[in-house]
Design goal:
Length: 66
Amino acid sequence: MAKGKDVRVTVILECTNYVQKKVNGVAKGISKYITQKNRHSTPDQLELRKFCPYFYEYTIHGEIKK
């Protein structure tokens, strides 16, 4: 078995349509989801259509850094 870095990592998806006012110089999104992705099959940043409860519609949620 391989040890070290795991293949599956936990990522946070944040709504890209609505961005709150800046807090400490960083713009924060209002809707967030937590999911996992495979590091080897998806090396790029993940973007998924998820439901945003503030717009009551499906919007694009992009991966952010922790």
